[in-house]
Amino acid sequence: MKERLIASTGGKGGTGKSTFAVLLALKLSNDGEKVVLCDCDVECPNDYLLLNEEIVDPEPIYRELPELDEAKCVKCGMCSRVCKENAIFWVEEKFPMLFLDLCSGCGACWITCPNDAIKPKEELAGEYFSNEVNSNLWLVTGRSKPGISETGPIVGEAKGRAMKLAGDIKADRLIVDTSPGTHCNVIQALLNCGKAYVVTEPTPLGAHDAGLILELIQKMQIPAEIVLNKSDIGDRKQIEKIAINFGVPITIEIPYSDELVRAYSHGKLEEMVDLI
Amino acid sequence: MKIVVASGKGGTGKSMLASSMTILFSKNSRVVACDCDVDAPNLGLWLGITEYDTKKRISTSEKAYINPKKCVECGECFDACRFGAVERDRGFKINPLLCEGCGVCQLVCPEEAIELKKVMNGEIRLNETKLGFPLVSGQLYPGETGSGKIVQELRRKAEEFDQDVMILDSAAGIGCPVIASVTGCDFALLVTEPTPSGFTDLGRILEIVNHFQIPFGIVLNKWDINPTMSKKIESWSGERLLGKIPYDRKVVDSIVNLKPVIYSDATATSEILKVFEKIKNLKP
Lengths: 276, 284
Prior knowledge:
The structure holds 2 protein chains of 2 kinds. Chain A is α/β, with parallel strands linked by helices. Helix content of chain A is 31%, strand content 26%.
């Protein structure tokens, strides 16, 4: 599966990660491949909008969060001591207070509690849904519930479903579209990818952030290529320098075009497939 | 007065607007610029800064290590880890890229074979800018965990300066680092663009802002790339709309030349000034 798993990422926001992922998915599926596109930007998933699809009856994604049973609690404070997220506040002779906004759901508190006073409880953390875009292209979208801090596990969940779907339909490719940044939610999306496209733009911002994501990609030992979006505006020298520094080629260039902007903002990217 | 700039969607113009507001506020108030996008910190570049006066490496996370000499390969850690960070491959190993440092593996290990070690996962950077105000920013090293905690650290650092106004430039998204940036602020400047993505993500960041009950205003950037959609966002925003900035290639020229937009003759500049006029007298 590894060589069939491709990521579209970029570090910086708004460089065209989703645009590229959708164009690539459309192009490959037009060429006759069976493609699953997985939108792993679960905090702000937009691929469905670019494909003019709707989210109907999403399936829930749950996670386990601690719940305190005061009848069993002896106010020992062990739970508070093991919590690395400072999500449990405790003072002597009082019940601990759980701040679920800060909780990562790691389970340290309920594993530690000597009286079974803390138990895991399933809470809604997000949702997942899939669309059959056409006979060769499926879209799987993960979406976090606003207020959920730790979104990496939701990415993992959505990607897991996409991989299962890809297996079921014998897909030739699974394309994952990551969120901006370089932390856990992006790492989850990049995990086990056989190739990563770093979508960037020819500005100091694009160069700076492409350098950061390439550092991560190198750590993860994923072969990478650079996609230079809006290639004809700004200053490309810095991107060329980054490409040389990291030994990564610039393989695709997408010039700025009003048509692409229009297609993006009207959910009509299929008309622009020839750009890549 | 703490003003956070956020958007949900990336690339809508947060750092461009945050840098402009910081410069404009600095003319009559003591300002601190705070770059809370620790994954991809770009506020400095918008202020023309590429070098920092000081950088301090910090540790806000730990990672687990399995001592192979003590490990009896019982698999307890493998079953207990919620982040898939324990890998089974001729014995058990921790994948540091996935380890959140929660310590659950250590808690369940019957052989005391697992140790948690502090990692230097990021840095706090300071710059006394030539523009007359300090910039505090941070960097989470790529592949490390704990972005929210780095944001908390750099906000603590930024508090040390005497100030009237703090401008916080948040990351894209609505997760951990964004929540850490938005919490405790007095006002949120939400930047959007007239695309289905921009509008949808505005709704998502708004859920966070409303959760913390923070007053907010909306800035519509690149409004002329889709005037129909812009009309929709305008009427949806009503009085909350603080300004409409046109798409302007001179903004791109500004960043290429590392010159703050506010000092350029971009048509966007006059609209940015109007936004400032509307928020300059805000009181916490």
